[in-house]
Amino acid sequence: MKTAVMTDTNSGITLTEGSSNGIYVLPMPVVIDGKDYMEELTLTNDDIYKALNENKDIVSSQPSPGALTEMWEKIFADGYDELVYIPMSSGLSGSCNTAKALAMDYDGKVVVIDNHRISITLLDSVYDAKFMAENGKNAEEIRAALEKSAYDNDIYITLHSLKRITKTGRITSAGAAIATVLNLKPILKIQGGKLDAYAKARGMAAAEQKMFEAVHKDLSGKYAGIAKEHLSIGAAGTMESPETARQWVEKVKNEFPGYKVTYRPLACSIASHIGTNTQGVAVGITERPLVCE
User: Fold this and answer.
1) Is CATH 3.30.70.2740 the right assignment for the domain spanning 3-148?
2) Which of 22, 32, 180, 235 has its CA 20 to 30 A from that of 13?
3) Which residue, 251, 250, 257, 13, is CA-closest to 124?
4) What value does the mean pLDDT of the chain take?
């Protein structure tokens, strides 16, 4: 069996990167002030950050059924016998369940995997799927492995500003005003496809330290005994400046020497809730062996 691997841009994998690595990537639709865009095709990260800073209404949407099935048909036309599609977590979008319904018409040749991940941790799952496919695993075997490890990952994010999270109703304006005066930075956690409050700190430096402490705790507890080559450390964010992003990646690398550290911007579906200049760090188990740094 020749098995293809497909995901969407919520994984942080670009269309070019996917093409270079034999991975099919579906652009996700985004609606800004009522106008439709497609990530990468008609909307860049800079465009998203500009819209966020201008406090525009941003809504991430599901791919259309036609867009999904069109890519599936292209994959089969390319000579594949079956495919695994790994979209963003069903806990954050209905796109996974929509895809599962559509897949029922493909006689088992399309396997939709609910990996309960997004962003940098979803990226790891996609590359794990590619690794398994290249090593003889079929679609059902890949699904079983990825769904078994779906919760073996954690993302921590510190918000630079409370403006966006106030707009989406997760915090009141009065609460945001008090937090701003006190320079309190909320730290959020994404695990199992759910975005929840984790902690708060006074100032970004203290917030960064709390995130690092959380990952160290995970490494010594939840992931104790896992070899470094099967543990991935992710650096993520919505940094507007490439230099700021580079500095954040270097901080993460210095904090976790000997681990493979990968950086990607956070997906629009997360950015639309948390705003610009956020910083994130993630940890998770991988099926494929990583080249440690």
Assistant:
1) no
2) 32
3) 13
4) 88
